Amino acid sequence: MGDRSMLSKSEHQTVPLSVLLKRELANEKIERPELSHGQASQSKKGEDFTLLKTECQRVLGDGITTYSVFGLLDGHNGSAAAIYSKENLLNNILGAIPADLNRDEWVAALPRALVAGFVKTDKDFQDRAQTSGTTVTFVIIEGWVVTVASVGDSCCVLESAEGGIYYLSADHRLESNEEERERITSSGGEVGRLNTGGGTEIGPLRCWPGGLCLSRSIGDMDVGEFIVPVPYVKQVKLSSAGGRLIISSDGVWDALPAEKAFDCCRGMPADAAAAQIVKEALEVKGLRDDTTCIVVDIQPPEKPTPPLPPPKKQGKGVFKSMFRKKPSESSSHTEKEFSEPDVVEELFEEGSASLSERLDTKYPVCNMFKLFVCAVCQVEMKPGEGISIHVSSTNSKKLRPWDGPFLCSSCQEKKEAMEGKRPSGDGRYSSGSD
């Protein structure tokens, strides 16, 4: 961006804006990483699905502001929810991003749009009254910024070119997530193991009714409304040395720790790496479950060969602390340029299940709230029809119900159900929708 200000000082008015913009886009093109990806799968039930879309255009027709999407959907109790989500989730997310944003605003709007898109997909699928469910791990890569939204237990892990390992998704298994257990019991659900009758309990912790061992998913209309589709979202910016992502279903992670997954395919191109990870997982556990892996390499453009093994990694306990938080806006551009370039920078992280927290934006995007459009399903509402997400919210910072964003009445009903506040206790159909 420096060359714009220099030009305007020395010879202002001589360079048309369109030329400057073209020049800026050309610079951007050079800085953008090259992506290569591969996937591999061994199927037992046929309920794992992947979505791989590269070079999607952010602004139609400019061919430069592209992003890529990688999704992994691990269905259960049938594959309908996984297939429906694969077909509709991306459009629902994009529908929640305001038009006319520049690139930085678009990236900043993603976390909120992901939440709205996940909830809308779940709501629309449940209107079909089919009973299956699915985990979703959804990765959007724009330049060096990787944004991951996830419900369930398919995980996305990053190894940066510098050798650090970063977990970009949460595990929503009741067995391992105490916070989620508490959320479900306080919303009126029960958490316990399968009872075999003679006082013995077996297997992982599950949520009752329904017996699902995940606390978040898309679909699952038969297992109680506190199984929510609100995703954990993490957004990070890689250094320009890049890194490798592994997105896998629990069939891989139940068998291999992250370090082993990265080590076993070191130096291989992405497609061979994905196949190798699946092979290693099956050697450990056998084929007990659908086992799927997507590997994405994010590399500087001038690196045609797979990266060499990175330096020895630090111990496991420091992974979390290796993130560099987003620098404060006041730090000047040059400072940013020279302060530790080889670190993965954390731009955003939020895992709360509360819609009022997740849809309340912290971004200075002026047209983020279209006043008369539902923040989840994007339906247009008449003035005065929308219900503020702060209504009935215990969030003391914001108790003004006229503050947006707003929900339509059916999305408000869904929000209350997810929070265990639906007035009658008889499940999905208490609103008389059957």
TrEMBL record:
Question: Any idea of its EC number?
Answer: 3.1.3.16
> Matching Pfam families, A to Z?
PP2C (PF00481)
* Domain of life where this protein originates: Eukaryota
Keywords (A to Z) from UniProt: Hydrolase, Magnesium, Manganese, Metal-binding, Protein phosphatase
Q: Which InterPro entries match?
A: PP2C (IPR015655), PPM-type-like_dom_sf (IPR036457), PPM-type_phosphatase-like_dom (IPR001932)
Going by the record, the broad EC class of this enzyme is hydrolase
Provide the catalytic activity annotation.
Answer: O-phospho-L-seryl-[protein] + H2O = L-seryl-[protein] + phosphate; O-phospho-L-threonyl-[protein] + H2O = L-threonyl-[protein] + phosphate
Q: What's a Gene Ontology MF term here? A: protein serine/threonine phosphatase activity
Q: Where is this region: Disordered?
A: 298-343, 414-434
Q: Where is the composition biased (Basic and acidic residues)?
A: 326-339, 414-425
What are its cofactors? Mn(2+); Mg(2+)
Q: State the SMART domains in the record.
A: PP2C_SIG (SM00331), PP2Cc (SM00332)
> Any keyword Lipoprotein?
no
Show where the PPM-type phosphatase domain sits. 36-298
Q: Where is the composition biased (Pro residues)?
A: 301-312
Q: Does the keyword Hydrolase apply?
A: yes
Which family, according to the similarity comment? Belongs to the PP2C family.
Q: What is this protein called?
A: protein-serine/threonine phosphatase
